[in-house]
Amino acid sequence: MSESFAAFLYLISGVLFILALRGLSHPTTSRQGNVYGMIGMGIAILTTLALATPSAGGIGLIIIGLAAGGGVGAYVARRIPMTAMPQLVAAFHSLVGLAAVLVAAAALYSPTSFGIGDVGDIHAQALVEMSIGVAIGAITFTGSIIAFLKLDGRMSGKPIMLPMRHAINAGLGIAIILLVVVLVVTESTFVFWLIVVLSLILGVLIIIPIGGADMPVVVSMLNSYSGWAAAGIGFTVGNLALIITGALVGSSGAILSYIMCKGMNRSFISVILGGFGGETAAAADDDIDRSVKLGSAEDAAFLMQNASKVIIVPGYGMAVAQAQHALRELADLLKEADVEVKYAIHPVAGRMPGHMNVLLAEANVPYDEVFELEDINSEFAQADVVYVIGANDVTNPAARDDPSSPIYGMPILEVDKAKTCLFVKRSLGSGYAGIDNTLFYKDGTMMLLGDAKKMTEDIVKSMD
C-alpha cells in the first residue's frame, strides 16, 4: 500500500471518529456514533497492518495480540454491569497510558523500525515527542489505576493529603522537564526510564488527594490525558491515525472536564491541586432542626398517585441498587394515572459524565423525558412531588445557602422547592463528598430509608 493511499484511509478514519463524537453527544444518536467509531477504528487498524511488513512470525504475533485483546474486550463488555462503567473507563484509560509508554520504549530501542533515526542518533524532534508522550502516558497509567481503585471501593474515596504535596508535585514536574532535556541531548535509556518512574509517581500523587465528589472530573481529565499521550506517540512513530485520534480524545476530554467543573462551580486547577470530597460532615447548626420525617412506601405511593407532576432525580444510589428498571415501572404507572413525569439529571450525578443517562437508557426511559439541570431547575417549584433516589450531594441546599460549606457555589437541583420531596436513601449518612445534607431536615422532605430498588418496588406494589 502506498503512503499517500494510507494517509487517505487514515483521513477517512479521522472523519468517522469526528462523526462518532458528534453521534455520542446525544442519546438518540449514540448507537450510530458507536458504529462510526468502530468502522473508523477498523479502517485504521487494517491500514496500519497493510503498511507494516513484518516477518511471518511477526504476523503471527500480531494476530495473537489482536485475538487476545479483542477477546478480553468482548468478554469484559458483556460481563461488566452498568454500575461498574466508571471504573471500567478508568481501567481502559490506564491501558492507553501503558501502551504509550511501551510504544515509546520500542521506538527508543529500535528507532530504525519507526523511521526516526538510528540507535544513538535519533532525531531530536522525535525524542521530544517521545518524552512528552511517555511522561503523559505514565501519569495516565498510575493516575487511572488510583481512580479505578477509588471508584471500585478498593481504596477510600476520601482525599489522602500528603504534607507539602504541592511542592513535591512541582518538584517532580520540574525534574521531568529537565530530564526530557537531558534525554534529547544524551539519548540515555537510563534517563528515559527515570522519566517513566518519576511520571508514574506523579500520576499517583496527583490523584490520591482528590476526593470522591470530584471523581467525574478525574475520569474526564484522565480521558484527556490518554488522548494527548496517544497523540504524542503518534508524532513519534509518524502515524496519522494516532495523531488524529489522540487530538480528538484529548480535546474532547478537556472540554468535558471544563463542563464538569462548571457544573460543580469549581476551577479545573483547584480540582487537580487538591480536589474536595471526604471532608468531615458539617457540624449541626443551631438554626437547623435535625429531626427528620420518616415515611413508608405506602405514604410515597399515595402522594405520587395524587400528584399532577412528579420529577424523578436519579443518583448513584440508584446505580448501586440497580433500581433503574423498577423506576421505569413506577413512572409508567404514574403516567397511566395521568401524572406528568420528568427526570432531572445533574451533570456530575454518579461517578462519570453521563452515568445516569446510560442507566436510564438501559431501562428504556424515553429520551424526551430526561432533562439536564439548566432545563429542569425552574420546574421544581411547580412539582407536587420530587422523588430523589440516591442523589445526595447534587441536591444539597448547603451548596446554595451555606457559604461555609465546602460545596458552596456548586449548582444543585433545587428539589427543596417542590411541595414534597421524597428522598430514598439507606441511612442519614453523608454523601460521597462527606457533607451533611440539610435537605433531610426540611419540612417538605420525607425520608424513605432503605434499599433504593426494594423501596421503589414496594411503592409500585402499593399502587396496584
From TrEMBL:
GO function term, MF aspect, one: NADP binding
Membrane-crossing residue ranges in chain numbering: 6-23, 35-52, 58-77, 89-110, 130-151, 163-184, 190-210
Entry-linked Pfam families: PNTB
UniProt keyword NAD present: yes
Membrane topology: Multi-pass membrane protein
InterPro entries: DHS-like_NAD/FAD-binding_dom, NADH_DH_b, PNTB-like
Signal peptide stretch: none
Primary location recorded for the protein, binned into one broad class: membrane
A GO term from the CC aspect: plasma membrane
EC numbers: 7.1.1.1
Subcellular location: Cell inner membrane
Segments forming domain NADP transhydrogenase beta-like: 8-461
Assembly mode: Complex of an alpha and a beta chain; in Rhodospirillum, the alpha chain seems to be made of two subunits.
Function: The transhydrogenation between NADH and NADP is coupled to respiration and ATP hydrolysis and functions as a proton pump across the membrane.
The name this protein goes by in its record: NAD(P) transhydrogenase subunit beta
